[in-house]
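Hello,

Our lab assistant flagged a job as stuck in the queue for most of the afternoon. It eventually completed. Since we weren't sure the result was trustworthy after the delay, we are filing this so someone can double-check. Below is the sequence as submitted and the structure that was eventually returned. Let us know if re-running is recommended.
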Amino acid sequence: MEWSWGKFTDLLAHLWIPVIVIGTAGTASLIRILRANLTDELNKPYYVTARAKGLHPMKALIKYPVRIALNPFVSAIGWVLPNLISGVTITAIVLNLPTAGPLLLRALISQDMYLAGSFILLMGVLTLIGMLVSDLLLAMLDPRIRFDQ
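-- returned structure --
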């Protein structure tokens, strides 16, 4: 397959549909997690006290409840990476995109266990990388979590 400027521009013209399909799936679950945790935090006494003392609503919201509600959100980011790859597989099969998704499906149908096993290994490695990134972000975000002993 030889690439030219015309093929590249055609790819960019058609790329927005899979990007929207894949991006909204992960975004919706993360928004639900953040919203649920933020709703729980808005009823806590420390936020009510901050508002009663006259702190600006947006400043009180960002300073207290959002910082605490971000912990489960950041923890859930670790699961987004393998789910993104799985979503890419399904999206590629439905939209007939020439990516690794249809290749995985053909490997499973033809019972090519080496190729299918390689994809599963890749998913496991991506899960580990996602969890590592999530843990590092959580350590940076939460002052209670430190690398020191």
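-- support follow-up --
The delay was a queue issue, not a problem with the job. The result is valid. Residues 8-141 form one domain. The longest helix spans residues 113-141.
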